């Protein structure tokens, strides 16, 4: 959010963005930046609608994946039952609301970092496997050739 427009507002002394960010936080900065835009009510409405659509599709996709994983005997061309997806979507919603109520945004950020740590070794193994796969399927690409400036 704090991109080029915020830098312009700060440089032109139209908004004390760094002061707002330091003293009040990112949410207040976002509100102040939107208030500086033309037609701030319309921009806020569009931003809110876009955010709701983003969250809805994210939760729907996550619920679909979780329901697919937890459904036994599901073939590749089949979808999990809608009731199963709904249960997972509600569970994800309850977890999100619970984290927000437990400690606000800092708790959500901490849980995001903690839950992503186990994925790091998997990503490293995937990268190593990719290198092995590329070397076995495309051996000519791994040959060392002298670099010339012809």
3D architecture notes:
It contains 7 helices and no strands. The protein is 73% helix and 0% strand. With 150 residues, it is mostly helical. Among the domains are: 1-37, no CATH class; 39-103. Helix 4 (40-70) packs across helix 5 and helix 5 (82-103) packs across helix 6 (105-116). The longest helix has 31 residues, at 40-70.
Please render the helix and strand layout as text.
Layout: H1 4-11, H2 17-23, H3 26-36, H4 40-70, H5 82-103, H6 105-116, H7 119-137
Helix pairs in contact: 2-3, 4-5, 5-6
Q: In a nutshell, what does this entry contain?
A:
The protein is mostly helical. Helices cover 73% and strands 0% of the residues.
Largest sheet: none
What is the number of helical segments per DSSP (H or I, 4+ residues)? 7
Q: What structural category do the secondary elements indicate?
A: mainly alpha
Query: Unreliable segments (pLDDT under 50, ≥5 consecutive)?
Result: none
Mean pLDDT: 86
Key descriptive features of the protein:
about 150 residues; mainly alpha; 7 helices; about 0% strand; extended
């Amino acid at each position: 959010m704090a991109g080029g427009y915020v830098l312009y507002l700060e440089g032109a002394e139209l908004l004390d963005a760094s002061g707002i960010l330091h003293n009040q936080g990112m949410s207040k900065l976002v509100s102040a930046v939107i208030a500086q835009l033309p037609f701030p009510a319309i921009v806020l409405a569009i931003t809110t609608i876009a955010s709701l659509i983003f969250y809805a599709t994210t939760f729907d996709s996550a619920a679909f994946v979780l329901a697919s994983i937890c459904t036994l005997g599901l073939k590749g061309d089949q979808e999990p039952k809608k009731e199963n997806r709904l249960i997972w979507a509600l569970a994800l919603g309850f977890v999100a609301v619970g984290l927000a109520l437990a400690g606000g945004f800092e708790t959500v950020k901490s849980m995001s970092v903690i839950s992503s740590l186990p994925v790091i070794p998997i990503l490293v193994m995937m990268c190593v496997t990719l290198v092995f796969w590329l070397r076995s399927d495309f051996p000519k690409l791994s040959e060392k050739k002298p670099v010339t400036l012809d």
